[in-house]
Write a structure and sequence with these properties.
Elements (H helix, E strand, L loop, with lengths): L24 H10 L14 E2 L11 H7 L10 H14 L3 E5 L2 H12 L5 E4 L4 H9 L3 E4 L20 H11 L6 E5 L12 H14 L2 E5 L3 H11 L8 H10 L3 E5 L10 E5 L2 H14 L10 H14 L2 H20 L12 E5 H4 L9 H13 L1 E2 L1 E3 L1 H4 L14 E5 L7 H16 L7 E5 L10 E4 L2
Parallel strand pairs: 1-10, 3-4, 5-6, 6-7
Antiparallel strand pairs: 2-8, 7-8, 9-12, 11-12, 13-14
């Protein structure tokens, strides 16, 4: 008898459902035009399967919902804060905690404290809000991710790794004093959810310790990164995701966290630090931009749900099913011949829009075009991760990233395997008629983070 393959399955059962609207092609065409061919501007009621983001869109557990009822809404000293602080220390290992309304609140405070005009912030690929806060504080982001990360076809297991030679060249050029910290993301979003290896992180820690440079961790999807280390890195196959998460964090000096992803809540984040002096300054600043240091822009009930969600997020059964669903969708896409970023990442499938629509030049926004076409086909909402998201340089020129991607982001504990089939079939349907698709032109561009609010028109 052949060995039987055991599939992943959801480690939960459904207790409540939210009814969805299935629109007609005519309704979708009208909605897309009104939204200026920007999926961010669609009304959610006009969306069938929403893969715009996994940020704040996951389903909370019965225990989290029960936690909402235990919210201590005192202005100062909420017991939920102290519960959250205890969980962050236990699971993540950081000494000091400041809640924020979401991840970018933490990025804003950290950037204002640590970055001076003219500073250089190296990182393993930019993220939109992170880079913007660094730039607004007077710094300049420099990409030090390995070259493999910019190649969608390369199947290296840890494409989130730092190229230490690139970092060393920056240190020699600018001096360590001009580098307030190295910005490290786990499960690198813009590269397709690609993980960093523990070996690479240890080597980075040794280098930064030698040159007295901090490492600040964007830990939004650290549990997914830990799962890939468990599955693919020698010596970690018998360790739990929770143990691996704690070790990852031990090689960093602080972290920004959007708890709306891994921690399974609809709103919230935090800044976690190990240095008292930096924490003390941040604690003063959080009062200016967020709220008192024991709530930081969150209700007590939100902090309670976050504390419970953090514990659930590092359970091996949960993360195996979470990533398993993403891998299932990716394999379905590849069966249809659809070009995606390989290997499959942790939080979504990223279509290679350059290969999907090779006849559309990057200045006509192929990934943005593809997002509109997928919605028009099926009501599935995705988002662009290419030239629109990359924005403009200080001189006004567009950034033209090597990766022009369309992200199918899977919310945690929300959709079924049947939904994954519908999504893959829609992508395949659009792929069949790809040669007839024309690009877009931008007709409205906001000053910052244009992908949220820009408007487009179809090219004739």
């Amino acid at each position: 008898m052949k060995n039987i393959h055991h599939s992943w399955a959801e480690p939960y059962k459904i207790k409540m459902v939210e009814l969805l609207k299935i629109s007609t092609a005519t309704q979708r065409k009208k909605a897309m035009k009104e939204a200026g061919f920007n999926t961010f501007l669609l009304r959610s009621e006009d969306v069938y399967i929403d893969l715009l983001t996994d940020s704040g869109t996951s389903a909370m557990s019965d225990r989290q919902w029960a936690g909402l009822m235990m919210g201590d809404e005192a202005y100062a000293g909420s017991k939920n804060f102290y519960h959250l602080e205890k969980v962050v220390k236990e699971v993540y290992g950081y000494k000091y905690l400041l809640p924020t309304h979401q991840g970018r609140g933490a990025e804003n405070i950290l950037s204002r404290i640590l970055i001076k005009k003219g500073d250089i912030i190296p990182g393993n690929m930019y993220f939109t809000t992170t880079r913007l806060h660094q730039e607004l504080a007077g710094g300049k982001f420099e990409d030090i991710i390995i070259d493999e990360a910019h190649d969608p076809e390369n199947e290296f297991a840890f494409k989130g790794n730092v190229d230490l030679d690139k970092l060393d060249r920056l240190v020699k050029k600018h001096g360590a004093a001009k580098i307030p910290y190295v910005s490290i993301a786990t499960s690198v979003n813009m590269a397709g959810g690609q993980p960093i290896s523990m070996k690479n992180l240890k080597e980075l820690r040794a280098y930064c310790k030698k040159h007295k440079i901090r490492i600040i961790h964007d830990m939004t999807r650290v549990a997914e990164n830990a799962y890939f280390i468990q599955q693919k890195e020698k010596g970690y196959e018998k360790k739990s995701v929770k143990e691996i998460v704690n070790e990852i964090n031990s090689y960093t000096d602080g972290a920004t966290m959007s708890a709306k992803k891994d921690a399974l809540v609809n709103i919230g984040g935090f800044l976690a630090l190990n240095e008292w002096d930096v924490f003390e300054e941040a604690r003063n600043m959080v009062v200016v931009y967020e709220g008192l240091h024991t709530y930081g822009g969150l209700a007590g009930r939100d902090m309670e749900a976050m504390a419970i969600g953090i514990g659930e997020s590092v359970c091996d059964d949960h993360i195996r099913a979470r990533v398993g669903q993403v891998i299932y969708l990716g394999n379905k896409m590849m069966e249809y011949g659809i070009p995606i970023v390989k290997p499959i990442g942790g939080h979504g499938i990223f279509l290679d829009a350059k290969k999907f629509l090779p006849h559309i030049p990057q200045e006509n926004y192929p990934a943005q075009t593809l997002a509109a076409e997928i919605y028009l086909d099926s009501g599935v909402r995705t988002m662009e991760r290419g030239v629109v998201s990359a924005g403009r340089k200080a001189n006004g020129e567009n950034y033209y990233p090597k990766l022009e991607l369309l992200r199918f982001t899977i919310p945690r504990r929300v959709y079924t395997q049947a939904h994954m089939d519908v999504i893959a079939e829609s992508a395949a349907s659009v792929f069949e008629r790809r040669n007839k698709i024309k690009g877009l032109k931008m007709v409205y561009e906001p000053r910052y983070l244009r992908f949220f609010q820009a408007r487009f028109e179809k090219l004739n």
